[in-house]
Task: structure prediction
Amino acid sequence: MWPQVGRRGPSREAQKAPALWRLLFHVLSPRPADDAAALPTPEAQARLVKSALRSQGYPRRALVQLPEDGSQGSRELLLALSWLLARGPLLERLLAQIRVRLGDEMPVCECEVLASPGPPAPRVEADGCVDIRHLQWLMGKLRFGWRNLITSQQEHCALLGKVHSYTRGCHSDRSLGHLSVTEAELLRDPEGGRQLLRRLESENARLEAALEWRRRELVFWQWMDTVLDACPPEASQPTFLPRIPERGAGELELVARELQALQEELQAVVETRRAAWEARVGGWGPGWKATQRASEEAVRQELTALQRAWERGGGLAQPHGPHRLVRSEAGTLGGPGLRATEVIKALRSREACLEAALRQLQGQCRQELARLVGALPGFIWILPPGC
Amino acid sequence: MLPAGCSRRLLAELRDALDACAERQRQLERSLRVSRRLLRVWEPAETPALEPTPGPDTNEEARPPARTPSPQELKELELLTQALEKAVRVRKGLSKAGGRDEAPSRKSRSIVSPATTASVPPRASGQAGRRASETKPPRGVRQTTVPAKGLPELRLLSVGDQTCKARGAQAAKPEPGLRDQEMAPSAAPQAPEAFTLKQKGILLRLPMAFRKAASQNSRLWAQLSSTETGDSMDATTTAKTQFLRKMQSGWPSSRLCAAEVEAEVGRLRKACSLLRQRMGEELTADPVDWMQEYHCLLTLEGLQAIAGQCLHRLQELRAAVMEHQLAPWPEGRLPSAPSSCGGGADSIWSPQLLLYSSTQELQTLASLRLRVAMLDEQIHLEKVLMAELLPLVSTQEPLGPPWLALCRAVHSLLCEGAFRLARRAGRDCRAGLAERGAGGSLRGTEALPAVQGGEGLRTRRGHPPGRGSACFVPLPNSSIFPAGLESPRGIIGAQ
Result:
């Protein structure tokens, strides 16, 4: 797909448009569609591409007005593609998504899972009202499923550990030291190994094409400049209404409520503490001022560092993405790489935080229910032990 | 019964969660199958047969007929294997001056693979070229041909063994044998000892073609990830920015496209949780002197200010969103690709390493990760359920049994269910948590999905659910009953 982009000259045949629609669709959908059967029709693809581009803020109105049957518009689509390329490391991101994974990888954060919801099951929307007991049952099923998942995961880790330790010293790459399951599998099953090798080689070809693209990129942008100039100017300001999805608006409200609650809590705590402090410190002399300023400065720095954790581009501090598992007995931990102990520490603190949050929510519910039920005369609310 | 809209939404949420869980389970099962298979005995049928004649005919029926080796041969085989393993150890100690010879891969016969590797060491200096590798086709995974070559090499190891010569039709070039050790005549090519990773795993070697491709792959990725700053790169970047600016066609960018808003809301959500975490830390800290106390106070005030700023920003976003219509999303929007983690590692595209030192550590890591994901989901579900169910309880006035049932169910859904993994003895137990029935006895009942709502499912790590003793479901243990009922007999399942 990608070498074609480089080779595509300034030709504007009409049949380029459908190919460009397809290309944009695949670029914009987060997971490459593995089975062709699940692909939507070309018209649907075109519609999805339009909405995705609009949600990302594509500034030209001409795109929206393109017919979805692919009969025209290749120039506009080319502009759209270039716009996506210019904004971010699109090429690298796509290549990374379809990368051949040679090692046993474990993600250290959960963001990948969130981004890929998996194949959406066909939803039967004709459900009527359900009994709440059905919900309870589903909830129990979910918990059971999670527990199974954890035990399966434990077994998987034990097996991985075995494979890694049994193949110590086999790998040509000294920093890895042992084979991964994929590599051992390729040895066990030569046919699979051949396929893996083929995939690896085609990926290498892709990577080389990408590097070649990088070398020639300037020419492309100069050409796109001319293409843009050749377009008729947009008559008026594009009246794009950014379509915020229903889910997004709900999310906003949730966060707003949480922040509101947090602020109120902080306010209450701060007021009492500040009052207590002032009462104590009221009689202190001016020598106190210097230390006061020092404290203020220290706190300011700490909080700035905290803020950086969620600001744009500040996420580098956290380990991120899939990591290749490498077993190394405690002596040889010299090389580059994340240590499991650090990740465990980070995860534990996150776990504690989340548990606290969950408990707090549950307590809130309990209080609310008690209030609702307790308001009624003639009822006694018996809580289970430990509640 | 719940109203239709509420039902639909809640069902959708729970089904989404169940689907996601099932998907994870499927992927895990797949990996488990592969790993289990690897650790079993490697079946000969899964690899190309040991054909005496290689070539286009990869028909596996060309295998020489099986022959049950005699006890004598078994013993000799054992001796041979031990000797070869010793040779491998010796080889490991030698330098790799002669170049590590790549035995292409293990074969299904344990004889063959040690043979190919063990033949290197004492001849590293002189006979590196004698390896059959050069007679093999240079590319591709060459397992089909190697087994055949292995047979003649077997011959080399045996001193004066005539039987093997007669069998091996594939006469490789007459290579001076490896006479470094007296070895018993090898047994039949059909070795009785099958290959297991446990015993022979360290003898495996990756095929040459694969290694080349893999190293080239990592080299190319490194090149791709490196940010070269040269004139050409600068020119490209300026050209790109200029292009983008032109695309805006002079109109001020509203910057409030849906993706941006979503990203910002995600950031603010992260901010909220980090602020809350920090607040928790400050509140539980125990200041020893007034300096620390003041520090604590200032921190809390600072946190409050930041929370206010975030809230303000959120309100700005909300206003901007309200300005534009909130049309329902058409036919399934393509979910946005950028991750909610902050996407910090944009510049590192190839996977980094994660070093672990023991299986237990790996298991801890994995289970913690799953646990965090689970908690995330639980919190999300809790919020959704709260938002949907609590209003129902308050609005449904009739005090009949349906309402009581509703209250009971809502309580069990929302307030119970501290699903935890009990940690192993000796590890830090989170004693601070309100353990649901921490002193409770194990119940021997089956781990059914809770029909009546008591979800206090527990498990001990490491015990698969199949073992009945470890799993139990406490029966629903909250109840609401009208005052005046004296005996507890009427309470369903309370304990």
